[in-house]
Amino acid sequence: MDYYPLFVKLTDRPCLVVGGGNVAMRKVTLLRKAGARVTVVAPELCPELEQLRDAGEIEHLERRFDDGDIARRVLVVASTDDEAVNRHISELATASFVPVNVVDRPELCTFITPSMIDRSPLQVAISTGGASPVLARLLRSRIESFLPASYGRLAAMLDSFRDRAKARLPNPEIRRRFWERLLEGPVTELVLSGRDDAAHKIVDEALEEGLDRRDGGGEVFLVGAGPGDPDLLTFRALRLMQLADVVVYDNLVSPGILELVRRDAEMIYAGKRRNDHALPQEDINRLLVKLAKEGNRVLRLKGGDPFIFGRGGEEIDSLMQEGIPFQVVPGVTAAAGCASFAGIPLTHRDYAQSLIFATGHLKNGTIDLNWNMLAQPAQTVVFYMGLLGLPIICRELKAHGRAASTPAALVEQGTTQNQRVLVGTLDTLPELVKEHDVKPPTLIIVGEVVALHERLKWFRPGSDHTAHSLFSSHGHAAPAAAAASVEEQQPA
Ligand code: SAH
């Protein structure tokens, strides 16, 4: 170990920065953030440092460095452009046992500052010992991505209970186990999803009554998995996927995404495709309630966004009735994913000032929609579940006044390596689709914006030759039979 890591308390402690340029400014900013009393020695200051001086935030000694300056300093930073001065400061400070940092000169430093993530009171510091600051920064951004901003709030909340916990559970071993069990339970997730009050209450009650008297702590995460490409998951979705004990998923959730779920989680397939109702909706609602009541952290994983043709509302309604804690995590809905990856902007200042998401689901051979509204000009209409009903959709839109030449597209398996985009008009699209062997899921986009596809298409799927249908069956995914034929999804 080349360096001994430590965090130094600098509140109201005198620190010295030698040099008045931009680099000095960065060091001063950080020291100020930690509450240090900063003195800057420099004949001249950069404008930002001048501002700080004028505001009384720092003390300025307007001259060159003097040997006496390091006396009674907690630490010293040298960032002058004079190599000899920097070296002199380093030697002097080292001889006086004052920690010293010379910017960008590790060999002259007795301390270095890490790359860091500040979620105060939580802090993460990363160092390569000066070997590669870029690598440290890269690692930092990786760690940052799975360390939600609200961890700071969690740490602060736990801090507020520390004295009480100490009084209540004087034995440090028992106290440690108490915090461990508490943090493995719903408290962490409650704070991370912004339900601080509920978290507070649980800690409060646990301290009052002990952990064992509390109920199982089960809860449900209703999570949108996006349109197929695992890269389009949200950080929060990924975090909950790795936390869940049980996963209840639909056929629209791609195998690539299911692979990211915690290895030992129990997987339950809930359907559904047209004519393949693995589980009726009421059973799914009941299943979620039952699993949560058994104390499980249940991940209800749905394609796209749970609140867009996802029946998410019905599922949380029954949870609400049973008093089971839950949270909803949005996902990239198919319309957004398919449009982006097909180069079809859904709105456009010249062509479409509004946007409608509609279901094209066939029921008893018809689609019950407000066609007058859908056929209005200057708007884009996106049909989910519209493959089987496509001829009816095109016919009705024309019958209600939308021009037969209106561009229309079908996006098949959008965002995946199997994405295909078929572009025609209200007149030609149904035939075009018939000619191609189209596989679900598919989305239909109608409106002038579709014509932009020719110019704006950018995504070239198929470059990855190992790619296979994200929606075909392997691993945890749906049974094989239905994926092979052209069938349309029902809202799951
Ligand atoms: N909640 C989902 C929609 C569920 S309804 C969402 O927000 O996206 C199922 C329909 O979504 C399918 O019939 C299809 O029209 C559409 N769909 C979902 N994923 C798709 C994809 N990758 N490509 C094309 N259409 C998709």
DSSP helix fraction:
25-40%
In this entry the ligands are: S-adenosyl-L-homocysteine
Major β-sheet annotation: 5 strands, parallel
List unreliable stretches of 5+ residues: 465-470, 472-492
Q: Return the domain count.
A: 4
Overall mean pLDDT stands at 89
CATH topology of the largest domain: Methyltransferase, Cobalt-precorrin-4 Transmethylase, Domain 2
Work out the radius of gyration: 30 Å
Number of helices: 18
Oligomer: single chain
The gist of it:
The protein has 492 residues and is of the alpha/beta class.
Can you offer a commentary on this structure?
It is a single chain. By secondary structure, the chain is α/β, with parallel strands linked by helices. Helix content is 34%, strand content 17%. It has 4 domains: 14-113, Rossmann fold (3-Layer(aba) Sandwich), CATH 3.40.50.720; 150-209; 219-332, Cobalt-precorrin-4 Transmethylase, domain 1, CATH 3.40.1010.10; 335-456, Methyltransferase, Cobalt-precorrin-4 Transmethylase, Domain 2, CATH 3.30.950.10. It contains 18 helices and 17 strands. The radius of gyration is 30 Å and the shape is globular. The two termini are 54 Å apart. The chain binds S-adenosyl-L-homocysteine. S-adenosyl-L-homocysteine binds next to helix 14 and strand 17.
Blueprint (SSEs and pairs):
Blueprint: E1 14-18, H1 22-33, E2 37-41, H2 47-54, E3 59-61, E4 75-78, H3 83-95, E5 100-102, E6 115-119, E7 122-126, H4 133-145, H5 151-160, H6 162-168, H7 172-184, H8 186-192, H9 196-209, E8 219-224, H10 235-241, E9 246-249, H11 255-258, E10 266-269, H12 281-293, E11 297-302, H13 312-321, E12 326-329, H14 334-342, E13 354-359, H15 371-374, E14 379-384, H16 390-399, E15 407-412, E16 420-425, H17 429-435, E17 442-446, H18 453-456
The site of S-adenosyl-L-homocysteine has 25 residues, from helix 14 and strand 17.
